[in-house]
Structures are given as C-alpha cells and as structure tokens.
Amino acid sequence: MTATRTPGVPVVEDGVLVSTSPATGDEVGRFPVASAAEVDAAVARARTASSWWASLGFDGRRERLLRYRSLLANRLAELADLVHREGGKPAAEAVVEVTAAIDHVAWAARHARRVLGPRRVRGSLLVAEHAAYLEYQPYGVIGVIGPWNYPVFTPMGSIAYALAAGNAVVFKPSEYTPAVGQWLVDRFAEVVPEQPVLQIVHGTGEVGGALCRSGVGKLAFTGSTATGKKVMAACAETLTPVLVECGGKDAMIVEADADLDAAVSACLWGGMTNAGQTCIGIERVYVAERVYDDFLGKLVERAAKLTVSDGEDADFGPITMPGQIDVIRRHIDDAIARGGRAVLGGPDAVQPPYVKPTILVDVPEDSVAVREETFGPTLTVTRVRDGDEAVERANASVYGLGGSVFSRSRGMELARRLRSGMTAVNGALSFAGVPSLPFGGIGDSGFGRIHGEDGLREFARAKAITRRRMPSPLPAMSFDRSPKAVAMIARAVRLVHGRSR
Ligand code: NAD
C-alpha cells in the first residue's frame, strides 16, 4: 500500500518509514519501523555491549570517541548535505550545527575521566577510621529520543556524554530525520565495530514510548513540552529516571545603552536562523523605550533583506514539519486580530513550505504569539520602560530555556535575573557552542542538563564507598562504644563545630 505523500511528512508504508525533503518532496531514505519487541531486543543487546564498553575504561572510550569526532570532521560536508536534504536547512547552517556537535564529542571524551573518575574525598570525625571514595558509575543503557530541528547537535548532546560516561545508547531519532540519525549511528559503528554500543530504532512516538518502557537505565528526551510529559508518565511506570529538554519562548532584552547594530544582528540570527525552528531561538524582544524606534527601524530594514529558499545561498529554508505552518499562521493571525501590527511579513508571509521573516509589534502579552512557542521566523517586539521591566515581562512565561541581554553596563546583572537555564550577554545562542557550559531549562522547558560537567554527571550514578583503614580509636557507630568514647566524641564535636565562625 502506498500512502499519499506530502513533502516532508514522514509516512509509514508496510512497516517502513519513508523520509522526504520538506522543500522538494524527494525521497531521502527508508527505514524499518521497530516493534516493541525489537526495541526490547536492542536494549538487551545494548546491555551486553555496555559491559564491554565500560570495560574499555575512560582512556579506551576517549580514544574511540576522538576517532569518531575525526570521522565526523572529515565527512562534515557529506553530513551537512544530508541534513539539508532531509530537514531543509541551508547546508551552511548544517555545517555550523555539525561543528558544534563535534566540539561536544571531543569535550565529553577528553573530560570524562576528570569529572567522573574515582576519587578519594575527605572523611569525617564520626567515622575517622574509614577512608571515603566517590565514583560515578554508568547506568548501563541510556535511551535517547531526539527532535528533528537540530538532528545532529541535539541528540549528540545526550549521546556523546552518555557514551563518554561509559553507557551504551539506544537512539530513537525523530521520524522527520531518520536518515541523519542512521548516518550518525552507522559512522559510529565504523569506529566501534566490536559491539552495538550505539544502536538506532526507527519510528513515530509509539516507538519512543516503547523505549521509555524497555527497562533502560535512564531516558534522555528532547522535544516538545507536551511529549516530555508523556515520556515522564511512561517512564514513571518503571521509575526510570528521565532527562527532559523541552521547548522555550526565549526573550531578548535590549537596554537603552545597548550597541544597537550588534543587538539587531544577534536578534535576527537568534530569531530566524533555521527558520526560527530553534529551541533556544529568540521569539520575544523587549526594548527600552529610548532606543525602541531606532532598534525596530534597523531590525526591519535588515530582516527584509533575508533570503528564504531551498537554494545554497538562502539565509534560511522551509519549515521542516508542515504541521507547524498552521501554528505559525495561528500565532500571526491572533496577534493581528488582537490589535498587533505586522511591520514586516504577516499573514501573507506564510507561503508553504516557507514562511518569510515576520516582525510583529503592539502584540498583547497574553496572546499566543507571546505566550506559546511559535517555532517560526517571527519576532514580537515590545516597548518597555527599561531593562527592569523587560526582565519582569520576560520572566512571566511558563518556559525558561535560554535568553539574551544587550546592555553595555547591566548585561551580567540582567542576565542573572532572567529565569532561564542559559543567557547570552551581548550575543545570542552563544552558550550552546561552549561545551564546558551546561545546557537545559527550567519550568516547562524541562529539567536536567546536557553538556559540560553537569552533562557528564547526568549520565552516571554517584556511588559512595567507605573503606575501613584502621581500627577505630573511638567507635561511635557501633554497640561497642563506651560511655567514655561518647564523652570524648561530644568534646571533640564542641571543639570542631562549637565556635560560631
Ligand atoms: P516532539 O515532542 O513532537 O517529538 C520529539 C521526539 O519524541 C520524536 O522523536 C518523537 O517521535 C518522539 N515522541 C513523540 N511522542 C512520543 C511519546 N508518546 N513517547 C515517546 N516519544 C515520543 O518534538 P519535535 O517536534 O520533534 O521537536 C521540536 C520541539 O523540541 C520544540 O518544542 C523544541 O523547542 C524542542 N527542542 C528542545 C531542545 C532542548 O534542548 N531543550 C532542543 C531541540 C528541540
């Protein structure tokens, strides 16, 4: 049976997932959909592979992961072309995405021993006869469920760190980008051919649900908030721990003392790169009234010059998931129906599969264009008194993923006050390109962290060990203790902790 195809919409034909380009409708690849039993079998294989992988130790894994990152670097153009064909983003944009992912693989490989390696830690007065040790042990198998918008960078933020921590991974890529997922897994098998340390299972949400219920040690999910809640509910059945990276409604704050040209440039890129289909994309802009007109004029002038097509020189391409076009249209229509104005673009900018740059002003704060994730090349620009009012408005959101502040004198202060997991000062999205920084949100944007030291610890269990190293001078945690020992302990605790400073 052949289902009717809409460009970019994945279809399942006779148990095979067919992936097509959102711009041209050309077929990109076919992949067998995994049954629940096949997901379980993959996890069982991964469990065996994880013991072998863990036995390589930090150095063995580091060497393999660094070889993987070299392979990715040497075949970057091939991967960028596939990302372009399957997801629609310009190949140049895909090069930036893959480069960031490669940096993460290298960082996780190089720092896993330092962050997770066994170490001796300070003992204590109460059990002075024991030495204390801390180590971080892998979970065994990590299930990774990914989205389509950054099909390399996003899942790799979990996969690379999970592997470096000593786990095997079973990866369920988005049904919109299975070919990119398959490519990443096949290339890993070239550098690690001995065991299925990184496996892939294809399919829609049902297959993701099966992975949640498969008995993995931990599930790392990246996608929408609505799906994140379903993933948590499924994982709750078996008390499987979860890492949940969800959507956002990130704000940019432009203070009166900002470098306006730099702010405009960052705002455009932060809001419209990848056609606005970026979890940490700027969607709301709050501008101090003293510079509002200047900023808006420059923003509209530059945004009008952005090129949108499937061509090589385009600034951004089509909307990857055709269904998202309805969401974008609804947000624009609602903003205008409620008194907002489109100073660029607007309803006519929606030309499937493309949406042209759209800048909305005077949009009420309680409209969907300000409250819900739009995931399109649209920005709401709002006049505020100053940075303080901007922070207040920016924080009045259920989301809290990233954000940006432009100010010469108050950047760090305002950044700290933004209710979000990450903030760029005098830039946009820059934190995503720094492997040593943690990445993740608060509120409806999820919880847990990928990247950096926190990202490595996310994929390991802290294990505490004490080892008796000598006979106890003063047995306290024992029925062998004497009244004299208790008196000495009480005296010692006064000596050590009795002072107020
Ligand atoms: P989505 O929630 O529709 O799908 C994400 C993944 O979950 C897909 O692989 C999908 O097949 C799977 N899935 C769907 N239903 C499931 C279920 N019931 N159980 C288990 N898995 C299920 O999201 P999307 O449209 O692919 O991605 C876009 C969203 O992802 C946006 O909201 C974006 O902000 C967010 N995102 C967040 C980050 C981040 O790091 N915070 C990064 C990229 C994207």
Automatic annotation (TrEMBL):
InterPro entries per UniProt: Ald_DH/histidinol_DH, Ald_DH_C, Ald_DH_CS_GLU, Ald_DH_N, Aldehyde_DH_dom, Aldehyde_DH_NAD(P)
Key words, A-Z: Oxidoreductase
Protein name in the entry: Aldehyde dehydrogenase
PANTHER family for the chain: ALDEHYDE DEHYDROGENASE-RELATED
Family: Belongs to the aldehyde dehydrogenase family.
Domain Aldehyde dehydrogenase stretches: 19-465
PROSITE patterns, per database record: ALDEHYDE_DEHYDR_GLU
Positions annotated as active site in the UniProt record: 245
Keyword Oxidoreductase on entry: yes
Cleavable signal peptide: none
Pfam families for this protein: Aldedh
Organism of derivation: Planosporangium thailandense
